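User: Sequence recovery, please. Input:
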């Protein structure tokens, strides 16, 4: 790699990092399968303990491209009409690293034809800048003087989530309400600042008479830090509640292809997503975008329970 190209990539990394870390919300293509990462009120809406994992490689092949690994758990507490959850998220972007540990709790009430959850996220985020790298160009003023910097940030979020089983779900949440920031003398406080983020999400489940074995689930996810906005529109088709395929459009950023299957005997869901970048980043990525893998496993809490059929994307 030439020195000029290396410096350009580092510069692009820093510009991208400033934007992404201002919003501080993981970007995932399987958002319709794990709303808990954005909304604490959606935790524990099933009858089982659910474990989920997602690994995302964005702009594959580009030095310092974002990598996200997410592990989450959620479970119902029916005795007190509640749900609880845990999120562990690691983000690596260039010389930056962020590890979020987040607890979720919600209280659920019967409302109209469904269930309404009111939830809170409490967590801590360790954010760091790795300065002990060895750049090829030692005289680059952008890279000189950088040192290892890290700090712990306390984080709070709130959410509402409404679900009518097998029909639709809708949620709204506000993350980073306290706008935490790490003020490091000699460092750059702006890099370690989290802005409030508003998330709006929803999905709807329906069938067509001409395709009775296929459930169609359109969904959307909108997030904004009140300066920038990201909008995802998705449509997934599920065949016999065992296989799914779909497409998603991330406004001004990427077209996403999704596919997966549900191994009902375990029960285990697995899926993959391939992002085709529609902006200039497609030329910098080896694959023209990025990929994501997803897995979800459910532990049944009830012994000898009569199986129930769920057609929603999260309740397969």
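Assistant: Recovered sequence (316 residues):
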């Amino acid at each position: 790699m030439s020195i000029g190209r290396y410096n350009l990539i580092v510069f692009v990394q820093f510009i991208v990092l400033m934007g992404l870390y201002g919003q501080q919300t993981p970007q995932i293509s399987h958002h319709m399968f794990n709303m808990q990462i954005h909304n604490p009120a959606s935790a524990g809406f099933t009858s089982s303990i659910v474990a989920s994992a997602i690994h995302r490689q964005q702009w594959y092949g580009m030095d310092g491209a974002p990598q996200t690994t997410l592990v989450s758990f959620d479970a119902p507490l029916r005795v007190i009409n509640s749900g609880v959850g845990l999120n562990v998220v690691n983000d690596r972007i260039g010389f930056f690293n962020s590890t979020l540990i987040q607890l979720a709790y919600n209280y659920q009430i019967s409302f109209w034809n469904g269930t309404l959850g009111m939830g809170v996220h409490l967590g801590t985020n360790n954010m760091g800048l790795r300065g002990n790298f060895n750049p090829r160009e030692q005289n680059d003023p952008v890279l000189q003087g950088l040192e290892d910097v890290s700090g712990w940030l306390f984080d709070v979020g709130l959410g509402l989530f409404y679900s009518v089983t097998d029909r639709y779900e809708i949620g709204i949440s506000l993350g980073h309400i306290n706008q935490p920031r790490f003020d490091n003398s000699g460092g750059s406080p702006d890099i370690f600042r989290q802005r409030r983020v508003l998330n709006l999400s929803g999905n709807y489940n329906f069938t067509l008479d001409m395709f009775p074995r296929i459930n169609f689930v359109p969904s959307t996810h909108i997030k904004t830090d009140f300066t920038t906005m990201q909008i995802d529109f998705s449509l997934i088709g599920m065949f016999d509640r065992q296989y799914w395929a779909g497409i998603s459009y991330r406004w001004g950023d990427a077209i996403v292809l999704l596919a997966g299957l549900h191994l009902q005997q375990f029960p285990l869901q697995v899926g993959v997503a391939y992002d085709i970048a529609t902006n200039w980043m497609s030329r910098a990525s080896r694959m023209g975008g990025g990929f994501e893998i997803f897995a979800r496993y459910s532990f049944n809490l009830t012994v000898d329970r009569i199986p129930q059929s769920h057609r929603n994307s999260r309740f397969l």
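The chain has one helix and 15 strands.
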